[in-house]
Amino acid sequence: MSGGRVPVKVEGRDLRLSNLDKVLYPQEGFTKAEVIDYYSRIAPVLLPHLRGRPLTVKRYPNGVEGPSFFEKNAPQHVPDWIRTVTVPTPGSTKDRDTIDFAVIEDLPALVFFANLAALELHVPMWRVDGKDRPRDPDTLVFDLDPGAPATIVECCRVACLLREVLDEDGLSACPKTSGSKGMQLYAPWRREDDPREYARKVARRLESGHRDEIVSVMTKKVREGKVLIDWSQNNTAKTTVAPYSLRARARPTVSTPLTWEEVEECDDADEMVFTAADVLARVEEHGDLFGPVAP
Predict the structure, then answer these.
(1) What phi, psi does 39 have (nearest 5°)?
(2) Residue 2 CA, distance from chain mean position
(3) What Gene3D superfamilies would the database entry show (predicted)?
């Protein structure tokens, strides 16, 4: 059973799924079949945030308690109907001038990667055009990372401060949990100036006004009890976990879009932990809370 392959047809594409009963989240007994089921059911709201974006995955072939690896290059056995793009990668840590990325455009491609135990889906803040050329960034991101004993509760307070600044500048932010311990704010970016420089200035401005709560540098010794506003994610070489992606935690938690009311009223970190089942129910209720971010 665990080693068997099951042929399936997904939107006209033939796939062979394997090891469906393998437990990938031992604490909850959550299997690969359930991972594939989650990604299949969340696809309508997830796919708009993946289309056109070169994909980096984090794979856990033996579950979240086993070894894992990041994979940027499209697997050699990727079907020819999955889009791949060759993107320049100057300064690559592996001395590669280009990388052949996969791009998830549809449900069959999403199921293919879920079957590889690609639990986490990471994408950049930019897309490729119809000729596979990188476009300018279309999204601004702030990654809020709490330094213990701070938690996502403190991140929510900082998110509200960030929202005020962005509103003043005509930018509409959407919040989401990271699915781990922090959260992120995204905003559509349609300006010609550099989003990285803009984000740096905003983070430094908030740090200067709230030094007991906020830092804007990565140095660990200054982060205790504070929230790091990581503006450096606005870098064409970096990726951020996609909204609705699973995370490789003890439980099958998800990077979950939030309402601003939830952010404003958060006073318990446990309120901001959402599993795959929770997120499917939330989408039934709210639709895609991150819809404004997708171009």
Answers:
(1) -65, -35
(2) 29
(3) DNA primase, PRIM domain
Q: How far apart are CA 265 and CA 243, in angstroms?
A: 21
Reduced 3-state DSSP string for the chain: CCCCEEEEEECCEEEEEECCCCEEECCCCEEHHHHHHHHHHHHHHHHHHCCCCCCEEEECCCCCCCCCEEECECCCCCCCCCEEEEEECCCCCCCCCEEEEEECCCHHHHHHHHHCCEEEEEECCCCECCCCCECCCCEEEEEEEECCCCCHHHHHHHHHHHHHHHHHCCCCCEEEECCCCCEEEEEECCCCCCHHHHHHHHHHHHHHHCCCCEECCCCHHHCCCCEEEECCCCCCCCCEECCCCECCCCCCEECCECCHHHHHHCCCHHHHCCEHHHHHHHHHHHCCCCHHHCC
Distance from C-alpha of 84 to C-alpha of 263, rounded to nearest angstrom: 37
**CATH 3.90.920.10-classified regions of the chain:** 5-135
Mean pLDDT by 10-residue block, N- to C-terminus, for the chain (295 residues)?
80 97 98 98 98 98 96 94 90 73 98 98 96 95 96 98 97 96 97 95 96 89 92 95 98 98 97 97 97 89
pLDDT at residue 275, as a whole number:
98
136 near 147, Cβ under 8 Å?
A: no
Paired tokens of 247: 């995370």
In the prediction, which pLDDT does 294 show?
Answer: 86
Q: What is the distance between the alpha carbons of residues 174 and 100, in angstroms, rounded to a whole number?
A: 30
What pLDDT score does 92 carry?
Answer: 57
Predicted pLDDT at 95: 61
- Other C-beta atoms within 10 Å of 273: how many? 18
